[in-house]
Amino acid sequence: MILMNDFKAEPPELQAAMLCAAKRVIESGWFVLGKEVSAFEQQWALACGLGYGVGVGNGMDAIEIALRALGVGRGDEVITTPMTAFATVLAIIRTGATPVLADIDPQTALLSLDSASRCVSANTKAVVLVHLYGQIREMDLWVAFCANYGIALIEDCAQAHLASLNDKTAGSFGIIGAYSFYPTKNLGALGDAGIIVTHDEKLAVRASQLRNYGQSVRYQHPELGLNSRLDEMQAAILLERLKWLPDFTERRRQIATAYFDGIKNPYVTCPALPESRSAHVYHLFVVTCPCRDALQAYLQQNQIQTFIHYPIPIHMQEPCRNLRHDPFGLVNSERHADTCLSLPCHPQMSDEDIATVIAAVNSFQGK
Predict the structure, then answer these.
(1) Residue 341: what are its φ and ψ, rounded to 5°?
(2) Is residue 56 part of a domain?
């Protein structure tokens, strides 16, 4: 079976390095908010071209803390996409703010500028822009859009590690960026982990305070925060995995290039090409097919695992059915949810695996 992710196939050198990192933490006797966390915060902020990183417990908390650090809360509205992991919207709701859902661009599955403009109101405080599947696009337009309306641009970079456009990295375009290091991400921990990145020192200080019960100095709590601290073990693991990320990212791009060149099936549409080679890191390679379920079943029969990202748009999830959305509707999001399928695209795939996937997709004959 060709898997969507194959952690057991990772290089033995990386596995050995992670074991050494774990041993280093155990022998240090310091397990929360220590040297490993500080080192990873500095290195990841540097990788993003920013001055500050704040390690947190997971990607959802990163979005919530980013919003709260900006003062977003009850009575405010935050525009985002219905084509995302549920955590994006749940983070907004947890701040007390109200998510407002704009539709996607059918060519990219990213948030549509036109749709977002129809969602702006006097209560709009921010846009959470999701770099879905690992792609960043039109960032100059999004920066101008948010500046024009006087709202904050927050980047959900959970799937876009090291994606860059015009020499700027995901997370550095807006006022603050939020990353997840869930194990399946391009840079993944061995459990939950996340980080906030920013160029604003005051925001970084407030985020650091919010992640630790709202504590400014020990036992002093000027505001209500939460318990969301990146732990030393995960930070140490991430420091080792970060060394491999450029090579792993390059392999993902090689796989994507092979798919673009090799998939030739009238029933299957490949994703839109990126603005530049560095602007997509292929956390997922997502095709669309009008008979998606049949394609998925066919690939499964051919020993190829696939997933759907995402089968149910946010506005069709039971707790979110009454959220305000684009008055023109969310037709593109609904269509994408009905037709999208993620093919295997991970660094441990062999050339033979890639050829097998391409051959199977091309031999699919529809319903």
Answers:
(1) -150, 130
(2) yes
- What value does the mean pLDDT take over residues 228-253? 98
Q: Identify whether the C-beta of residue 121 lies closer than 8 Å to the C-beta of residue 134.
A: no
Residue given tokens 């803390």 in the structure block: 65
Q: Quick check: 261 and 225 in contact, CB under 8 A? A: no
Residue 231 sits in a domain whose CATH number is 3.40.640.10
Q: What average pLDDT does the segment 155-169 reach?
A: 97
Q: Say yes or no: 256 and 226 in one domain.
A: no
Beta strands in the chain (DSSP E): 52-56, 77-80, 98-101, 124-130, 152-156, 164-165, 168-169, 176-180, 194-198, 285-288, 340-343
- 71 and 193 belong to one structural domain: yes
**Eight-class DSSP state of 231:** B
Q: How far is the C-alpha of 349 from the C-alpha of 351, rounded, in Å? A: 7
At 35, which amino acid appears? K
Choose among 84, 129, 133: nearest CA to 312.
84
Residue 350's domain comprises 245-363
Length of the chain counted residue by residue = 367
* Calpha distance 126→116 (Å, rounded): 11
Q: Does 194 share its domain with 324?
A: no
> Does the residue 1 lie in any domain?
no
CATH number at residue 295: 3.90.1150.10
Question: What is the C-alpha separation between 229 and 90, in angstroms, rounded?
Answer: 19
Task: Report whether 169 contacts 45 (CB < 8 A).
Answer: no
Confidence label for 217 from pLDDT (cuts 50, 70 and 90): confident
Considering the chain, what percentage of its residues have pLDDT values greater than 70?
100
Residue range 215-240: mean pLDDT, rounded: 94
186 and 303 housed in the same domain:
no
How many domains are there within the chain? 2
Alpha-carbon torsion angle 79, 83, 89, 91, nearest 10: -110
Does 320 lie in the same domain as 193? no
Whether residue 367 is predicted with pLDDT greater than 90 in this model: the reply is: no
Q: What is the mean pLDDT of residues 320-331?
A: 97
Cα–Cα distance between 191 and 290 in angstroms, integer?
Answer: 35
